[in-house]
Structure formats: structure tokens, C-alpha cells
Amino acid sequence: MTKSNPGRFFEDFRVGETIRHATPRTVTAADTSLNIALTGGRYALFCADPVAQAAGFTRAPIDPLLVFHIVFGKTVPDISLNAVANLGYAEGRFLVPVYPGDTLSAQSDVIGLKQNSSGKTGVVTVRTRGVNQRNETVLTYVRWVMVNKRELSAPAPAPVNPHLADFVSPNDLVLPAGLDFSGYDFALAGSPHAFEDYAIGERIDHVDGMTLEEAEHQLATRLYQNTAKVHFDNLAQQGTRFGKRLVYGGVAISLARALAFNGLGNAALMLAINAGRHVNPLFAHDTLYAWSQVLDTADLGAAGALRLRLVALKNQNAHAFTDRAEGGDYAEHVVLDFDYWAAIPKRG
Amino acid sequence: MTKSNPGRFFEDFRVGETIRHATPRTVTAADTSLNIALTGGRYALFCADPVAQAAGFTRAPIDPLLVFHIVFGKTVPDISLNAVANLGYAEGRFLVPVYPGDTLSAQSDVIGLKQNSSGKTGVVTVRTRGVNQRNETVLTYVRWVMVNKRELSAPAPAPVNPHLADFVSPNDLVLPAGLDFSGYDFALAGSPHAFEDYAIGERIDHVDGMTLEEAEHQLATRLYQNTAKVHFDNLAQQGTRFGKRLVYGGVAISLARALAFNGLGNAALMLAINAGRHVNPLFAHDTLYAWSQVLDTADLGAAGALRLRLVALKNQNAHAFTDRAEGGDYAEHVVLDFDYWAAIPKRG
Amino acid sequence: MTKSNPGRFFEDFRVGETIRHATPRTVTAADTSLNIALTGGRYALFCADPVAQAAGFTRAPIDPLLVFHIVFGKTVPDISLNAVANLGYAEGRFLVPVYPGDTLSAQSDVIGLKQNSSGKTGVVTVRTRGVNQRNETVLTYVRWVMVNKRELSAPAPAPVNPHLADFVSPNDLVLPAGLDFSGYDFALAGSPHAFEDYAIGERIDHVDGMTLEEAEHQLATRLYQNTAKVHFDNLAQQGTRFGKRLVYGGVAISLARALAFNGLGNAALMLAINAGRHVNPLFAHDTLYAWSQVLDTADLGAAGALRLRLVALKNQNAHAFTDRAEGGDYAEHVVLDFDYWAAIPKRG
């Protein structure tokens, strides 16, 4: 018997159970500073109290993506310690702003189970909620992962395939209470482009590139208290097909979103995660580039919303908007295909 | 004459003198976030205000090991700038919790001096106190180092060998005032194991590994304002027997303690440092693993206490509980042998 | 048409125009902790509230150099995105202390333009102001950069060469309101040397060295929200004459100033930047050393002021006070020649 956590295997999950995750975390302005140092983020809403207050916030909220990574990190010891692959996200919605001083904790409902035909692994689908100290759900999302079985002989559970929306409907997007962009200062935000300036189908090359170091992704992933060993244990990784540490997918999302400031500087506020796939592995020393495409738009009254596809590339700039290779598979340079909604001020 | 600090040499110390160290430091929640980013620490008491408040703290205190490193860092310019080796610790006790906003300063009494037979070096023993802005001693510990002589001809002082306890007696352990584990939430802490579950002699493999980068140990050591040049000046190190930067021993302690969360998740609160030796040097790119052994237990009323031996290994996992090699010396993979007391909730 | 920022080219600047920069930033105690972790800074005034309060500050202010880097970072997208070289600084003055919670923003007046004889580039001179949330100017400085032309055929503007002072006159130095060094504790600050102890012409070898990693300079430069791609995009840099990322010059200044603590421990408070040149490029893995020379002294009443020349060297210690090579050019090891005023307590 061991007191260290072996993690759950596929046969340990039951549809309908709720897993309460450990390690509540009081987030502070320090997490914002570290997030800036780790990503280079420049969205004014998250780094300047007066800008946030002018838009109806109490003060600068924590970047929703940072909230997502922290909540996600809490689920790792229970959900994905024995995961083979992180397969996808859906139905992610940011519901309440998180401020410095708030304490985040998380719980997950198991909503899907399906053993793979190999009999060695299965797909586990969970709906996770991040809650604050007032027990308000600040974030909810669905994630599915491929998890190893402990015993190949364990019987396959009755397959449950949850129905998941292809994307979050604009009707389900929640703007922060009191959001007011009427006095929004486009110059101070660093971009002149308002909601009305973006056209469905439009693609934006974010131009800049960012080379990633081992220390950087490890610092970020530890800040999220995500302890999946593939990101940290280089010795153990030497026995794997990659032979080295894998960068946590959330690091790629945050870096790509920071790069996307250059072209989407006013689309700071992520409202929903529609879908997301980590298409190819990202490693230290890779240089990340990104491009975006406007998939849809919605007028939410107090703000516009853009449905954006964010594609991150490694070691190839985004000038050519690289996407699929011949044959339809993702090109080898593509590491992330991420679909989300973000609020953006209207020209008014 | 130079205005830069040459550091003290062996003949500059006098038994009985008190050295007041420079660089008081106001610690903040930022130090907690950085500590999490640098170590991956997950002890809930140090990262969630509500968890700490439920246990009788004002808010999440600063991790005692971080307090130790910061206090230790202040002593370096006065004690160990010309040290050859950091030989050991004893009689370390954490007496008062340190909170964000507190200001730490430090002073040391020289309690032992003994010239080595070579005539080139001597052992200096100091008892250091870390104090807060109310002049309360928050931490005290003894440390001894081997220090170079400036002039080989300087006369040897009368040897003074302080008597030091092999370990801190349970009677001398101090629980934080008002500590109350009666409502402790084991699930939220991430481990079901209470005081009663640990048996003397029991060993725990902490399983996880952490590969360390140059940037990481440098950031940590600078955060502690520990400026010993062996950790930072790679050019000067090229002329030494190791040929590269040495990782500050405190980084190994903190990383090993963070790894130890996996098996000791409720033993967050370090109460005492009984002994500690940095057995082999740790370098960047090494992967650290750790195992623990329960050396003793004590019921302190409001909490239990475990006396734990924490052994950190480099580049070899801890499954075999590696310790001594044949012949009785430490195996070459062992970097740290650390003996401490930690409080842990009772099942109640 | 693209929505990403192409940056201004030489022909886009007009003498007399004011450019309002984006990305206001609320600085916090976290920036101080990160600054300590990134530089190893030990000036007590910036890391201990009680020390700062004893000297008349509200609490520990943000290190003026960190303020400078943050303000500078805001100007990059507007001024130097297409810069070939950062040529110099002048007339820098720190006017109001910046505290945690203050929000910094920046604007620049174009005060000089001169096309180079090649017709491909020109020199742009701007006077930048950093302002806080009360619209007080906390910092002002002049900087000139060589910027590419977009179109070689664009006509050369009428050359305007602003007259700039060789150095800030002591009469123009501004001590923080209420500065009071009467109770200054030299021991706690870590250096016994007061204003009266420094002689004009005196040189100080700061002894210590610091080896810099890619992750470290990238973290620092992102913390400043300085996004100049030469510091981050290793792939794009492979096509340049250096073939790798360049370290932002501000990182060299801050590291050299942190090293200068050893010999100038009481000269924490930078009052003015007289001049500064980044003489040779600094790269990751270089080891930085520094020496200082006292150029002048001034008695400001409540404090003394030292005019200091700070020279940073790479991969060569500062024992020989390396400076110019034969022929008068800077030696290849010199990376920085920086001229500033700092306040220092008088012996009283």
C-alpha cells in the first residue's frame, strides 16, 4: 500500500459521480504579474485597474485563460494522471469575473465513458466547474481524455457518449455584470479595431513569434499547480516516443492568445471555449506563431462578440495561414486549433 | 581599499559576537505565487486563504521553508561568502507564522569556532534568528560552515564546539497560536492520510520527478536574495572542480518538499529542522526525486507531528529508496538527507 | 490591409507630434518580487516597507529602473518596432516615487528627426513621459533610435537636432517629497559607506558575476511588456547577423545595477539618467560583471547625490576596469556605458 497518489485508471470512473478536486488556490495580483512575465500579455483590461474600472469591473480581473489553467490544474491528479492524451474541450463558459483575492476550487462530474476497441484505454468525459469562495461557478467546461486501464481484464462499462454542442450559442454567452464599454479608450488599449471592423471569414496574421524555454513552460505549468509528469520529468520522458518533456497545451493557448493581441487587441475578454485540439506536440526551443480567423460575430448589447479560431504554429511563421496539409490532416507545424468567443467593444 | 564586501574569513569571527544582517525584506503574496511557480508546491495551507483561516490562521501564511531560505539568504554576505562548504543544520524551529506584509530580518550569534588541522580553513557555527517587524523571532536555527582563512598565519582561536541536539525534542515544537484542525478537509487538501495513518519506520516513494533548469534555480536563489557566487557566475565556476554553477541547497530542499506532497499532503506545516546535509552537488538539468521515512511521531494535542527523513535523489527515481552505497557512504545519486518535524491533522 | 501593427517607419514621424502609448499597467508588490527574482536586487529601500517608511516613503517604492523599463516597454510598439538600433538616452529624471497600486502609462513627444545619408534610415528622437493615475509625471527621458524607412523614395524631412544636455544638472535633480535619511541604518542596508566616503574619480569593482539565461531575459522583458521581436523570436533571429536573440538593453542595466549593490549599497535611489549606450550586444549564457566610477558629487540637502558611470562587461570580470580598447573604441567585452545620478545618505 502506498500513500502516494496512483491516479485513477479508466475503470475507476463512474458516469454520474462528482469528483471534488484538491488544492484550492487564492489568486492574487502576483498571478497577473507572473502571467504577464510568462506570456507577454498586453490586454489592458487585465493589467490596469483604471481601464478595468472604466469598463465596470471592480479592478483588473484575472485573465480568464489563467483562471482556466488554474482550474484545469486542479483536475489533473484526479482525471488525467494516467491519461494518454488530452483529446478535446467543449462547452466552456466564463460566468463570473475572478479578482485578486478570490479563491478558486474545482469539481468535475463524469458525464461520459467509452472503452476503446483496443481494450487498453478508454475515453473519459468530465464537466468541470471552477468555483470561487462564494461558491459561484466562475467557469465551466467539458473535457475528454484517453485514460489507461489498470487491468486489461476489467470489464468495459456501458458506453455513454454525452451530446456536446459544436460551439457555445451566442445566447449562452455571459457578459460580466455591469460591463460598460461606452467610455472605452481604443488608443490606450493599443488597437483601433472595434467589433464592427471584423468580418466573418477574415484572417489575421499575428506576425510576432515567441521562442519557448524549458524553464518558462515549467514555471507556468507549476504556477497552475498542474503536476502532470510529462511536463517536468525529463528522465522519465527519455523512455517515451518524444524523448523529452512535452509543453502543457495550456501554455500554447496562452502564448498564442498573447501573440493574438497584435490584431485583436480589444478582444481581451474570453467568454467561451467552443472547442480546442492540441494537434501536434510543442517542445521547449520551439518558436510559436499564431493566426486567427473570424468564424462568427454576435451583438450582445453591451459588447460585441467574435467567434475566433486561433491556430498556433511551431517553427513556421503564420504569413501563409498554415492549416491542413494535403490529404486533410493538420500540417506538422500546427500545434493548436482553438475555437472561442471573446467580447469586443462596439464603435458605439 | 575597496568598497565592495570581501566577506568575513575564518579569523574574522569571534565566539559570542552577534552579527546583524542586512537587507530586511517585506514578504508578500507574490512570494507565495513565485514559490508555487518555482516548486509546484500544492500544500493547501499555503495557497488558499480560506483553508488557512479554517485552521486558525489569519490568512495563508508564507511557507516556512520559504521563510527559512529568505532568512538564510540574509546571512550569506556575512557568514558564508568565503565558505568552502555548508556542513549542516540543527535545532531549527519555526516559532511564529509569517504572513504577507511581514518584514523579515535576521541576526546571528557565533556559537562555535574550530580551525581545521590543515590550517587553511575552520568551521564556524552560528545560531541565526529570523525576526519580524514586531521583533518576534519567527525562526531560529543553527548552521555550521567551513570557511577559508584570509591569512594562513593567523593564529587558531581556542576551539569552541557547541553542544547541539541530535533533533528537536517534541516538547520544544511550537504549534501556531490558535491552530485548529478540527474542521480540516482532507479531500480539499488532496490526501486522505491523517496522523494516525503514519507508522514509525514507514517509507514513502514520492514518485514524481522534476528536472531543474539553470533559470529556475537562479530565479529562486535570487528571490531569497542569496548571492553566493557559486550559484550564479558560470565563468568563475569553470575554474572549479565542478566546472559549472552549483544549485543552492535550499532549492533542493524546497523541490523535494514539493514532491513530498504526493504522500504527505497533509504534513504541510514544518515545525522544526532537526538536521540536514547536502550530500552531493545538484546541477541544472538534473532530475530530482524524493522519498521519505517516518522517524518518529508525537501527539501535540491540537495536531500530530511526524519526524520525517526526506531524501532527495538526482537522476534516479526513488522506487528503491536509495540511501547509502556499499561501504556506508551516501550513494552518488543522493543529494539531500534532511530531518524535520511537520504538523499533521489527527483523524479526530 | 492588416489589423496587426506594422509599427511606424521613419517617414511616419513628425516633429512636434505627441504619441499616446497603449497598455497602462498597474504595478504591484509582485513586480518588486519578480524584479528581485530576476536581478537579485538587494537595495533595502525597495524591498522592505519599514526601511522605506523610516526614510519618509509611504511604503517600499517600485525600483525606479523597473519603472523606467515598464514605461520604455510601452513606447516600443509606437517608436521602435522598426528600429535598427537604440542609440542613446539623455535627460532622464525620476520625479515622483511609484508605489504598488499605481498605474503607469506613457506618452512621447517627437523632438528630433534626421535622415541618415544612406537614405535607408533616420534618427528619431523622442521625449517620453511616464505618468501615474493622478496624471503626475513620474519619469521623463529622451531617447533616440535609428528607424528604417518604409519607402526609400520618401522625402527626407527637414532635419531637427534637439539640443540635449550632456548630463542632468544637480539643480534639476528631484528628491522624493519628505525624504528623510536622518535615521538611516547603514548596517541594515548592507554597506557602511555614506556620501562623504565617495571621491570623484574613484572606481569600484563590483566583483560578482551573473550568468544570464534565455528564460530570464525573456521573463524580464515580457514583464516590462516590451515586445520587440529581436528579444523573443529565435527563428527570425537566425536570419540576422547575430543569429540569435538579443538581450534587451534594459536587462543589462538592471543586472549591472543589482551587481553594483556590492560597493554602492546605499545609493539605491536613482534620480536621473544622464546618458546611456548599449555598446556591444548581450546574449543569453553571457556572464555579466560591472564596475562603477564616481564622476561627480552634489549635496542636495536631505541627501547627497553621486553621479556614477556604470560599465557592464560580458565574460570578463571587472578587476581591470575594462573600458576602451587601443584605438579608442570600446573593448569587445563592454556591453553598457551608463551615466546616472543616485541619492545616497550623508553621514550626518
Can you walk through the features of this model?
The structure is a homotrimer of 348-residue chains. The first copy, chain A, is α+β, with helices and mostly antiparallel strands. Chain A has a single domain, classed as Thiol Ester Dehydrase, Chain A, CATH 3.10.129. Chain A is 20% helix and 30% strand. In chain A, strands 1, 2, 3, 4, 5, 6, 7, 8, 9, 10, 11 and 12 form a twelve-stranded antiparallel beta sheet that branches. In chain A, a hairpin with a 4-residue loop joins strand 10 and strand 11. The mean pLDDT of chain A is 96.
Summary keywords:
12-stranded antiparallel sheet, 348 residues, Thiol Ester Dehydrase, Chain A, homotrimer
In short:
Chain A is α+β, with helices and mostly antiparallel strands.
Unreliable residue stretches of chain A: none
Query: Whole-number radius of gyration of chain A?
Result: 20 Å
Distance between the termini of chain A: 64 Å
CATH architecture verdict of chain A: Roll
Strand content of chain A: 25-35%
Which oligomeric state applies?
A: homotrimer
CATH class of chain A: Alpha Beta
Number of helical stretches of at least 4 residues of chain A: 9
* Chain pair sharing the greatest interface: A-B, 39 and 48 residues
Helix-strand category of chain A: alpha+beta
CATH superfamily of chain A: Hotdog Thioesterase
Total of domains of chain A: 1
Order of helices and strands of chain A: EEHHHHEEEEHEEHHHHEEEE
